[in-house]
Amino acid sequence: MDLDLDFMYETFFKILGGISTTLELTILSLLLAAPIAFYMAVLRLNDAKISSGAVRVYVSFVRGTPIILQILLLYSLLPSVLNTIVQTLGINFNVFDAIDPFFYAVVVFSLNTIALLSEVFRSALISISKGQLEAGLSIGLTRFQVYIHVIIPQAMVVALPNICNITVNLIKGTSLAFLMTVKDVLAIGKIAASFGYNYIEAYIDVFFVYIILCTIIQVLYTAAESKISTFRAMHV
Amino acid sequence: MNYRPFDPSFLLQSIPALLPYLQITLFVGISSIVFGSIFGILLAKAKLSSIGPLRWLAQGYTYVMRCTPSIVLLFIVFYGLPKLVDGLFNYQIDDWDRSVFAIITLVLLFGAYVSEVFRSAYLAVPRGQYEAAVSIGLTPLQAVIQVVIPQAMIIALPNFGNSVINLLKEGALAYTIGLIDLIGKGNLIISQNFGAYAIEIYLACMFIYWVMALLIEKVFFIIEKRLDKGQTLKTVQTVKQDKKRARLFLIKGVKFHGPGS
Amino acid sequence: MLMQIKNVRKQFNGVDVLKNVNVDVQKGDVIVILGPSGSGKTTFLRCLNFLEQADEGTMQFDTLHLDLSHTSSSDIAKVRKKTAFVFQNYNLFANKTALENVTLGLTAGRHVGKSEALAIGRQALDKVGLSDRYDYYPAQLSGGQQQRVGIARAIAVKPDVILFDEPTSALDPELIGEVLRVMKKLAEEGTTMIVVTHEMKFAQDVATHVIFMDGGVIVEEGAAEDIFVHPKHDRTKMFLKRILPCGGICEEYECR
């Protein structure tokens, strides 16, 4: 099998240009999802039956359906929903031209990440012993203060490996953003591929870019983990 | 563009039209699970092997798969494999059924995922189980097959179930290489209607997937309950931990009101 | 009178854990609560700090008069600022050093300035004999050291009363002495304490008042000597017989 190495070399650097879109999409989705996911985790742990039931169904639905269908659905649904809203409000604004598909991608991946993160936060919070809360309350801290100073820092350490997994999966998942015409790593590779029918070369480039990206992410998370878990690492 | 209200009846109507194509989805999924599990067992064996290069190879492979988007792998297999086979054996496989390419991709991915599940389950069985088996005269092979693996299987079950659900979901990508499975058929219906009913069709597909996921979850849960007679390490540990630490939220009396209250 | 607790009742899943418990606390008292496990003594102590909510009962604390079954969160906060709790399993904040554990109640709970809090924190740790362990995390400390940090955390907030919930029960026998010595020192300085414990020698030496609980009620109470040497009630006698090596009068029973 002959690979067009010159083409591969050139395309590789073209594809690198898509990293910023891939990373922006990933980071923005994570940042938007995190606070909502945390709130959902708290709702789940609460005794409130209706809200925790609603969260359960949402999480189950998102986890039980392929992300590609979530993308296809929302990409058909969101623009028309937005358009209806805009028209009812009587604003002169063309939703279909003015909104960057990147926006839809952020919504889709955030909605997906919320469900996954809320499960991670929930199990991390459950893993912290109840005594930590009691000890904080007993010396006169408010519940909120105990959360800020004691429980969340400990839960973060528990959650971090899972958050790393979610991030890696999210980066991989954003490769489907090409379905929404977002110009990320895979989309650029695809365009280059179809240009000269050099499919395999382009996709191998894309493959390498993702391995590099994921490796960097994992190295960063490992470093962060060892930094914030000093209190656990050392034993007598 | 023209808008019409969401039509739930079309959603229900479309399900009978879609369901026959679930066979294709399931055929791809089940074949991938069977071959992928075999591949995963081999990989797990390699990871537990005492031969360094074999171990590194298996670990490296798993790492690469963990970092590769499924769709990229699917494209590489779909476009690259025919070229590779042509180059090596001078044999044309371009016209093979697209499901074959989907299955090959999913086997490559699933093998990597479950090899980790198998490996960690095997290591989770305490060494003492093996030692006890050998001490009463079983051969090492007998000890592994009769004592260690049955216990490891139970430990592996929940994660294996998760991997199966994930595999089915990744299988949904197959329509992008032109396989007419559940979603492929859904897209055909949508284009027959000139782009209308997309929301109904996609929702119908999602419900079918959701029901499958819930069923698989339930089945694995039942199998686990059946097999687990309380002998596994996991149960012992949970009981112990529960006794040792009163968990933050599970104890009655002090209710959890969330931060700020 | 520093604290007057009346008619405390508490049920868990329909079982009476506390039935009508009354305790008076004077400033400087060291009240030791004894009793078999399941007698309700720990639950009672936890009710005082609102870690459990009593079904019934009142508490008079300084100028506060509280209904234990319906306490507003601001009143709970007031009581918690005047009390401190030492836990059986220490419950040190796992993500904080010894010094941070001690100062958190000051900086976050009471808005004490950072440098002042550090000074108080060091002083408290010095007092429990841990001047060389300021920057150690709980995971790096032995059980006895952790519990002494727990005590330092309690004294640092200068509470009116410290509640001890079986502070030595989770410790290896050789580590119990160091914790009891610290507690004895606090008692001698006039700290008001309510202690749930199985350490009979400590109760005998230090308690100003001993309460024997069984089945959710106070069976017998009085001066240490009365309870240990002249127990009146059969249940008290049986308990003492079981728990003391010399089967009752225990002059030779040495503090570990």
From TrEMBL, chain A:
GO cellular component annotations of the record: ATP-binding cassette (ABC) transporter complex
Q: Where in the cell is it found?
A: Cell membrane
Leader sequence range is: none
SUPFAM superfamilies linked to this entry: MetI-like
Q: Name one GO molecular function term.
A: transmembrane transporter activity
Membrane topology field: Multi-pass membrane protein
Alphabetical GO biological process terms: amino acid transport
PROSITE patterns linked to this entry = ABC_TM1
Q: Where are the transmembrane segments?
A: 25-45, 57-82, 102-125, 146-171, 202-224
Instruction: Name the predominant localization.
Output: membrane
* Keyword GTP-binding appears in the UniProt entry: no
Classification via Pfam families: BPD_transp_1
UniProt domain ABC transmembrane type-1: residue ranges: 19-221
Keywords on record: Amino-acid transport, Cell membrane, Membrane, Transmembrane, Transmembrane helix, Transport
What family does this chain come from, according to its entry?
Belongs to the binding-protein-dependent transport system permease family.
Name listed for the protein in its UniProt record = L-cystine transport system permease protein
Automatic annotation (TrEMBL), chain B:
- One GO cellular component term, please give it: ATP-binding cassette (ABC) transporter complex
Name where it's found: Cell membrane
| Family of the protein in this entry | Belongs to the binding-protein-dependent transport system permease family.
Q: Which residues cross the membrane?
A: 20-43, 63-81, 101-125, 132-157, 194-216
Gene Ontology molecular function, alphabetical = transmembrane transporter activity
Lineage of producing organism: Bacteria, Bacillati, Bacillota, Negativicutes, Veillonellales
Could you tell me the membrane topology recorded for this protein? Multi-pass membrane protein
Give UniProt keywords alphabetically: Amino-acid transport, Cell membrane, Membrane, Transmembrane, Transmembrane helix, Transport
- Which Pfam family, any one, appears in the UniProt record? BPD_transp_1
InterPro entries annotated for this entry? AA_ABC_transptr_permease_3TM, ArtM/GltK/GlnP/TcyL/YhdX-like, MetI-like, MetI-like_sf
Q: Where is the ABC transmembrane type-1 domain?
A: 22-220
Name under which the protein is recorded: L-cystine transport system permease protein
Q: Which GO terms describe its biological process?
A: amino acid transport
TrEMBL record, chain C:
Domain (ABC transporter): give its ranges.
3-240
Query: GO CC terms on record?
Result: plasma membrane
This chain belongs to the protein called L-cystine transport system ATP-binding protein
Q: Which UniProt keywords are listed?
A: ATP-binding, Cell membrane, Membrane, Nucleotide-binding, Transport
Q: Which InterPro entries match?
A: AAA+_ATPase, ABC_ATPase_HisP-typ, ABC_transporter-like_ATP-bd, ABC_transporter-like_CS, MetN_ABC_transporter-like, P-loop_NTPase
What are the subcellular locations of this protein? Cell membrane
User: Does the record carry Hydrolase as a key word?
Assistant: no
Upper lineage is: Bacteria, Bacillati, Bacillota, Negativicutes, Veillonellales
Taxonomically, which superkingdom? Answer: Bacteria
Organism the protein comes from: Megasphaera paucivorans
* Keyword Cell membrane attributed: yes
